[in-house]
Write a structure and sequence with these properties.
about 230 residues; alpha/beta; Rossmann fold; six-stranded mixed beta sheet; five-stranded antiparallel beta sheet; globular; binds adenosine-5'-diphosphate; binds magnesium ion
């Protein structure tokens, strides 16, 4: 589904150039659960931003479902992202002055759904994640695990082909993380690919495959984990 060829990303500040990623060649297949593991500043977040079409690489090529997406316009990239891709973040990134149900509906606003269809998608997701009783609450009233479940429901609303999760358990206790990863596992079993960045050895076991990063390089691919 996603292929990269020699992608690199650097940031320039005056004379100083910092490479966040170098020579990245990876393939993400439909329906896979891949863990991107590495210490802080190894390039995990940068890689997810490139694979998830949030940002363009400084060099190299990225193919998404056969289309080269590294050199297309921002608006073309946005369109593909809205239709096929979703994100979950460490800090949830919920909109504080929208209710739970409005947050979950957000990704649907640019997609050609009728009002009634949107309501049904949101209602079904709230039921699935046991959030229905909270639909009119605001995020700040909820615990961390519940906020992350809302973020996951929002990520599912556009029926993405792939969900990128950047340290999704960073704010959760180990028990909460297990519960959250069980939801991820179910979503993955239904066919949605997941790419999860983590620095945690323990969390990596949820993936079918591990891409190990260090200082902006992929240092190994493996099939350990579940
Ligand atoms: P990780 O998610 O593994 O902690 P990041 O992808 O956030 O790593 O960062 C990789 C490297 O790129 C780090 O050295 C970081 O400082 C640098 N970096 C990331 N984003 C920027 C930016 N917007 N400007 C300058 N340097 C950046
Ligand atoms: Mg990061």
């Amino acid at each position: 589904m996603i292929h990269t060829r020699n992608i690199q990303k650097f940031y320039q500040r005056g004379e100083h150039v910092r490479y966040a990623l170098q020579n990245i060649n990876i393939d993400i297949n439909e329906g896979e659960f891949v863990v991107v593991r590495g210490p802080s500043a190894s390039g995990k977040t940068t890689l997810l931003g490139l694979l998830g079409l949030v940002d363009a690489p400084s060099g190299g090529e990225i193919y998404f479902k056969g289309t080269e997406v590294a050199h297309i316009s921002d608006s073309e990239r946005d369109k593909i992202r809205r239709e096929h891709i979703a994100f979950v973040f460490e800090n949830f990134h919920l909109i504080e002055d929208l209710t739970i149900s409005e947050n979950i509906e957000l990704p649907l606003q640019y997609l050609p759904f009728k009002h009634k269809q949107k309501r049904k998608i949101v209602d079904d997701l709230m039921e699935r994640f046991r959030l229905t009783h909270l639909k009119r609450q605001f995020p700040c009233r909820l615990g961390d695990l519940t906020q992350q479940k809302v973020a996951l429901a929002r990520a599912c609303s556009n029926s993405p082909d792939i969900i990128f999760a950047d340290e999704p358990c960073g704010r959760l206790s180990s028990g909460e993380c297990e519960e959250f990863m069980e939801l991820f596992r179910q979503i993955n079993e239904e066919g949605t690919a997941i790419v999860m960045a983590t620095h945690s050895e323990d969390n990596s076991r949820h993936g079918q495959r591990i891409i190990q990063m260090f200082d902006g390089h992929v240092v190994s691919h493996s099939t350990e984990g579940r």
